[in-house]
Amino acid sequence: MIEPFTVPFMARALTEILLLAVICGPVSVFVFARRLSFTSDALTHTVFPGVVIGFMAGQLFAGALVAAIVTAVALTLLTAGGRVSDDAATAVLLTAMFSIGVVLVSRRSSYTSDLTSFLFGRLLTVTPRQIAETAVLAVVVLVALAVGARAMVFRTFDPAGAAAAGYRVVWLDLWLNLIVALVVVAAVRAVGTILVVALLIVPAAAARMLTNQLVGMAVVGTVLIAGAGYGGLWASWTASIQYGVALTSASSVVLLLVAAYLLLVPVRLLRRRRRDPVVPERNSAHELVG
Amino acid sequence: MNWWDDALHRATAEVVLAGALAGLVGVQVVLRRLSFFTMALTHATFPGVVAASIIGVNILLGGVVAGGIVALGVAALTRRRGQDASAATGVLLSAGFALGATLVATQSGFSRDLSSFLVGSILTVGPQDLVTTAVALVVVALVLLAGARPLQLIAFDRAGAEAAGVPVARWDIVLLLTLEVVVVTMVPAVGTILAVSLIVAPAAAARLWTDRLWPMTALSVALAVGSGLAGLWVSSRWNVAAGASISLVATALLACSWLAARIRLLPARLAAA
């Protein structure tokens, strides 16, 4: 079970996933509680033009960072007010930014391979330099999260109360959007968009089945990502070495995470039957973005 | 030579049909805030399409089956109290995409298929795609026409509609399945990004101009078809990706509508201040 990871590139891939597990566990709790699933999905798409421009200029990391920060600011402003509802605004920003990226790559001769590597990432060719970049961003994200956590929890569960207590809700929203954007930048080149979206949404949703406590959710989420990361890499290694089946490592990690979510659904139902808590009714069954 | 033999002519016809389809259903998407669900549908039908093409059955069938499962799943999940629809939709989205990508990766030469799935290839639509889109357009228009009144009631006052005896849950499922049909028809022809863009942006723009349902729908269809045609022209004029230019034109129309709405409301706001 350890043998595949004695190969240097597998060890590096595992290191990258474990680093991401440390940041994505806590961040996904906020994504879950604030219902930012769509925002996370949008951010993974909107960094694409930044990646393209950065690639042309030879500064891929900086390009992605700038695009992510621009999106976080634009999303905060668009959802803060105005007559366009926030889910429509998010969808339009997503498609527009992604289209800009596509227009830019379509001017080059062969763009399908670029797109594919953007989707899947290159988990198995992670370089020590990329791991260092991820580690630096992980520290920044964790510090930012620690600084803002109290206020953001307050704002999540009682927006009016937070505003009355003197917190600027818009700034808190921007803070969280920037944190999610940084996670996306840290992860997207190594592991691709498919895996980043899953890492931001699934862990906390699965952990919610086990516990109601935010810290507990963060810990369970981190453990789930680490487990799925290890299992996914191992499965993809075994499948390709022993059975000759091409199983992309990023998607096997996602599928393991989703499997964990599905396995935990009955646990949640059991817990609920035991305690039978009072759950507030939502006013519309179809407001898919909070 | 037949008029339909030219790729650009076929693309034009497809853009008009797909635009009308997207504009029609887009109004409901914007009013009911289903944008994320639309995005998730485009990704979740992906494994169905891939599996169908591996088995060798019609890919539309695969998409319809996979999308139907997802639509009913979301309907079931959102009916249970306390379930977070946003997270559940997100899980479905990543699961569908990863599953589809895994299936594609087992086949050789997959990068081309994947990118055409994402950004579409509107310049290569065949007569088959045109017929499918036209049929879907007729069906969707009839369903929305038949359901216009209850859907309008539910969109603006859900509790009121329920109290008035409208079968809310049944109409919800009808709407989700209609949206699913639209997504399944549009994605193979125009790609996921353009499908979402054409469904959401024109309707959101139309919403800025009027509060009434019929003018909103007409305007939404007109804007969707218009941005499709303008985008195609831009694409052939400057040789950039067609799908991307169409969605950028749609975005630009929304931005202009937003500015216009701000300017229109300015006197009222100044008077209030």
Automatic annotation (TrEMBL), chain A:
It comes from the Bacteria. The keyword Transport applies. The keyword Transmembrane helix applies. Gene3D superfamilies: ABC transporter involved in vitamin B12 uptake, BtuC (1.10.3470.10). The chain crosses the membrane at residues 17-36, 48-76, 88-105, 131-154, 174-202, 214-237, 243-265. It is found in: Cell membrane; Membrane. Keywords: Membrane, Transmembrane, Transmembrane helix, Transport. InterPro entries: ABC_BtuC-like, ABC_TroCD. It is a multi-pass membrane protein. Belongs to the ABC-3 integral membrane protein family. PANTHER family: ABC-TRANSPORTER METAL-BINDING PROTEIN (PTHR30477), IRON TRANSPORT SYSTEM MEMBRANE PROTEIN HI_0360-RELATED (PTHR30477:SF13). This is Metal ABC transporter permease. It comes from Paractinoplanes pyxinae.
From TrEMBL, chain B:
InterPro entries: ABC_BtuC-like, ABC_TroCD. The chain crosses the membrane at residues 12-31, 51-78, 90-110, 130-148, 185-206, 213-234, 240-261. It comes from the Bacteria. It is found in: Cell membrane; Membrane. Gene3D superfamilies: ABC transporter involved in vitamin B12 uptake, BtuC. The keyword Transmembrane helix applies. Pfam families: ABC-3. Keywords: Membrane, Transmembrane, Transmembrane helix, Transport. It is a multi-pass membrane protein. SUPFAM superfamilies: ABC transporter involved in vitamin B12 uptake, BtuC (SSF81345). Belongs to the ABC-3 integral membrane protein family. This is Metal ABC transporter permease. It comes from Paractinoplanes pyxinae. The lineage of its organism: Bacteria, Bacillati, Actinomycetota, Actinomycetes, Micromonosporales.
